[in-house]
Amino acid sequence: MKKIFSLLIFLPYLITAQTYSKKVTALFLGNSYTYVNNLPLLIANLALANGDTLIYDDNTPGGYTLNNHFNDLTSKAKINSAPWKYVILQAQSQEPSFSPAQVFSQTLPYARKLDSLIKLNNNCTNTVFYETWGRKNGDASNCGFYPPVCTYIGMQNRLKQSYKKFADTCNAVMSPVGEAFRRSIALNPSLELYQPDESHPSLEGSYLAACVFYEVLFQKSVLSNTYISTVNSSTATFLQQVAHTVVNDSLAVWNIGKNLPWADYSYNGTSGLNYQFTSNSISLNNKWYFGDAGTSSVPSPNHLYAFAGSYTVSHVVTNNCKKDSVSKIISITSTGISNAINNNSIYYVYPNPSKEYLNIEGGKNFENNGTFIEIVNVLGQLIYRGEFTNSINVKNLQNGLYSLKIVNAKTHLNFQFIKTE
């Protein structure tokens, strides 16, 4: 993502309406909660309506657990069939709601093993854990063994905790579909998100899941999307808003953007045309383009400009899999004064840039004290050496950046100045 701005402030990973098209590849490994109402196709249609493309494959046998997928030759073959941008993992609807000890010993190991297979195929693939929803009235079949699942809220709380654990352990993303169900039910309990079995999703439930996934996979807003399938238009608008709110209210919780680079920086002038650039980015690698052919690879560099003016300064960051950049148009101005300190005395040279004469003031008078002035160009070549004077004629110098040194047996002061027309 490339950003260009001057005074605007951007918040990392805020999912907003964006005009550019995106193409995403995704593999869905789940069970009936994924294949009922063809969830991947619903997501693809939402993408298409917004000018985007979802290329997908799936393996979703009924009742499959993460253990089943890890030992399934079809699932393994599909993981290895392409350098997927995303692989979505959905556990069997009940297994993540069991006790933490049981989930830790029976389910989490297979979440980690599947993630390892995914990364082995392509280290830049993003694993996404599909958080499902609690059953409408809890899990009656397991209520006697583990009371927290006796109610919808109790079961939903455990699902959220387990899927969050999977995502955090695998450094992966969590798609909070179950939390979108929770919000929809709280705001509009009469809207039926379940089939009569009180487990599988109605079309409205699957459409809500698709809206969540569109925001997570494309990192673009689903609001005002024109694809509504056969859902009532007002209901579709409501479900889009629910999905958008749930995803964006807790981006950090779902780890959305956590593993992606984000470019941002601040800057300020230090002296003359010397500027300090400070990276505020999330990244492993940095590259700076200062707009005057100068570059740097350090996180927070200093840069000395030859001339005042407007420059487009770009900061590019990468994490080996993805890059982001920000460009700011900034005005570089000079204070006209460069200074140095020696023995608690401050010395100044001005005007800077200078056309004809460069003046030196401050501190003690170096006249008749065995003090010399040296001027060195950017190549380190000494181009002038003479006795100290408070005013130096520089009009015969070529335009560019120079170092001016004041030296004697006890003193060594260094300034930088610009010669200009």
Radius of gyration: 31 Å
Percent helix range: 25-40%
Instruction: Tell the overall outline.
Output: elongated
How much of the polypeptide forms β-strand, as a percent range?
25-35%
Tally of alpha and pi helices:
11
Number of strands: 21
Which structural class do the helices and strands define? alpha+beta
Strand order of the largest sheet: 1-13-12-9-10
**Straight-line N-to-C gap:** 40 Å
Q: Which stretches are low in confidence, meaning pLDDT under 50 for 5 or more residues running?
A: 3-13
Mean pLDDT: 88
The largest sheet, given as strand count, sense and whether it forms a barrel, is:
5 strands, mixed
Features of the shown structure:
alpha+beta, single chain, 421 residues
Outline the structure in words:
This protein is an alpha+beta fold and 421 residues long. The chain is 27% helix and 29% strand. The chain contains eleven helices and 21 strands. Strands 1-13-12-9-10 form a five-stranded mixed β-sheet, with no helix packed on it. Helix 2 packs across helix 10, helix 9 packs across helix 10 (203-218) and helix 9 (177-187) packs across helix 11 (233-249). The chain is elongated and about 95 Å long. The model is unreliable at 3-13 (pLDDT under 50).
